[in-house]
Structures are given as structure tokens and as C-alpha cells.
Please model this.
Amino acid sequence: MYQYFIAPIFGYLLGSLPFAWIIVKLVTGKDVRTEGSGSVSSRNTIRTVGYFWAMLTSFLDITKGFFAVFITRFYLAPTLAMGSDDLSILCTALAGIGAFTGHLWIPWLKFKGGKGFAVLLGSMIVINPYGNLVWVLSILMFLVIIRYSYLAGLSATISVALLGTFFYIFTVPNIYWSSWAVMVHGWGIVIILVLRLIPDFKAMRRGDIKRWSGVKVSQWMK
Model:
């Protein structure tokens, strides 16, 4: 049973690397948590140091999500799973969930973090690359319909989980969607994201969050 703990812990530690905080600190000497929204995110990096550094932050966040699952899938999981492919994919999925959680609640920064969408996209490159296409197309649609960036991100994430569930239940032949562990990853991310967004739900009801008003990538990278 130890493999179920090693994979998410490894993912959590890698996902908790606070690239937004590091970049803002190196460039300006400021703490990104005291700037703008206080989020340790690419969006808040834009407000603090501009688009170039925010793009670098997004790239690094995607990279840590990718390497958390890539290293687990091809180096850790074969050993942990002891020859079981399903268990290997499950360990990989748990590592992806761990990386996502680590970005949302960074222990080195008093458990402050971002929304984790860049980390999610990075992890899905290995776990479910088709999910990235579904997520991007879904968020563009939901941004127009809902006009709240974080709700659009949540809706897009649910879309990926639902499609993965559909493909698994109806046994659509596909090396990425056919494992039940992909469903574990999708719905695990959804549950964690809902918990992370509880303060945003409350802020929305108070009218403290503005609706999305233009096509800006930064709106969903928070």
C-alpha cells in the first residue's frame, strides 16, 4: 500500500515549487502574496512584473505538472506497481493530483497558492493529452457563457472528467482514456478544485469578483 502514498507525496513536493513567488522576488524583491490578488499565480505575476515573466511562470508551472507525472509514470511507477499496468497508471494519476494540490496549497508559503490550471495542463500531457484539447476548447466556450474565469476553469475541468468517464464506461479503445485511473485523476482534481474555490464562490455572491470582459489568457491561469 505504500505506493499509494509515495506517488502523491512526490507530486505534491514537485507541485509546491513556488515559481511565481521566486520570479517576482528575483525581479522586483517583492512578495507576490502582497501584490494584486495575493495569489501565487501567473495572473498575479502579470500584475506585478508583466507578461514576459508571467509567461515564464506559466511555462514552469506546466513543466512541474508534466515532470511530476512523467517521472512517476516511467521511473517510479513501474517499480511501485510491481508489473501491474493499472496500478502504474493509478500511481501516475495520484502524482498528478498531488502536484495540483501542492500548487494550490504551497507549504513553504503558509499554504497560499494559485488555481493550478497550468499544473493540470502539464500533468495531462502524460496522463491524457486529449484532455488538454477538451479543456482548452471548453474553457473558451464557458468563458463566453459564464464570464467568470475561475468558474469557466472549473467547468472545463469537469468536462474533461466527464468525457474520461464516458470513454471508460463505454470502453472506447484508447490508451489514454481506457483506464479507470484516468477517471480518478479527473474527478480528484475536480473535488480539490471545488474546495480551493470555496472562498471565490463566497466572493462572487458578495459581488467582489468581476466578470470576464475580454480574451485574455491570463484570466484562466490564476
Residues 3-220 form one domain.
